[in-house]
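Here comes a specimen:
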Amino acid sequence: MIRRQQRRGRWDEQYPAIQDSRRVKVLGLLSACRRGQLGARQYRCGQCDNQRVTLNSCSDRHCPDCARQSRYLWHRDVLNWSLNCDYLHIVVTLPHELNDLIAANRGELLRLLFRCVQEVLLELAAQRYGCTPGLIAVLHTWGKKLNRHFHLHTVMTAGGLSKDGQSWIHIDQEQMQAANEEIARRFKTKYLRGVRKALRKAKLVMPESLPDDQAVQEMLRIIEGKDWITHVGATQQSQRDAGQQRMSLSYVGRYVAGTAIGDGRIMSMEDDRVTFAAFDYRTRQTDELAMSDSQFVTAFSDHILPLRLRRFRMSGIFAPQGRGPRLAKCRKLLGAPTQQQLDEASDETQAGDAFDGEDMEDEGSYVPCPKCEKKMQMQLAFDGSVIVPLLAITAAATGLLQRGAAQTIQQAVAIVAAAGQKHSVVHRALLPGRFETHSDLISTVEILIADRLSQQEAEASSRGHPRGPPEAPR
């Protein structure tokens, strides 16, 4: 959908609501992800000599495709922090009356959200139990209908280190659930105090719905008189009775990257309208929601976070500074998690979210071979100005092969290159004897055409047509 809309013109010209350069840049990256504009890499397998070309991803945290990689890497790291204890899952939600003010001041007020939740939970644990638990908080700005819904998911260890760091103190989960209203009251007090302080220091921009200080103060007075919403979820009693611990560190992994909606929820895109699935928590049913293209893109872009605002933060035992020694001390007191618990935690996050290993930052220039599953080594890197014409040539040459207008891949490429040589240096480079790079580019196009034919054959088979186009001779 984002790619379809980009073809119609610039984002800031099409959508008056999308004016800031940050949102325009992110939408541009998402539309270019794995499409060639960001470049490509060619790999060779040292085991079976198979070759493949991969189009570069955008690696943006808002991209539904690239989010799988972020979740995989984060989950792999966070399993090393797992402790042999129960966990609490705490959700703190901001009143919807604050939505416009937060949207106009995302950096200031969302950082305030993180800070207040962290302080409330750490103070409550210290006052009631005399311990410091571990916290991992993950920000969500959306509801299932792409509406603004600012809330924080926090996973908290049901226990913590004593003040002297020499013992583990358990936190009573029933008592924490009973303290739900107290958590909400403490958070409301801290958050409103922070908002008013920011107003006094003139740090906030006023949205159109709140044109002056008097309107803001009246809104704050109204929400101060309301009960704010928090939810404390604990390990179920049946699990505790069976001696099972809920490894919820993995649970929070699904929230680390990605954005308001992924491709899996899109049901149809027809006649400039998008229909997607939206789960209604009140009725516990999945509804179909339709929007125009412009409404959808505007709603999606509304959840792009400001630069340098992280979606998750760790504190307490999990705070980055000194985390290693603290976790070692906790494991000495609690015992290390069993392999079965770690396996269950791994299954919880990775179920339905398989990752093929491409573009892993710490794996260098290697991807797995689709034939023998050995690691492939990068041979060539292409700029977008080269790979985009090569993709166009691939599409045209594939069409010639399927229509029988060319008998071999090289013949098809030569026909397409000759037809476009006046317009592109890449086309001219593919003509025999013109440049030294001719053989490398021909090899790349051959790989791309073979992949395209294989994909079309697989798609035809999935539609009930077992016989796809024959493999083209070289």
In short: Confidence is low (pLDDT under 50) at residues 351-365, 466-474.
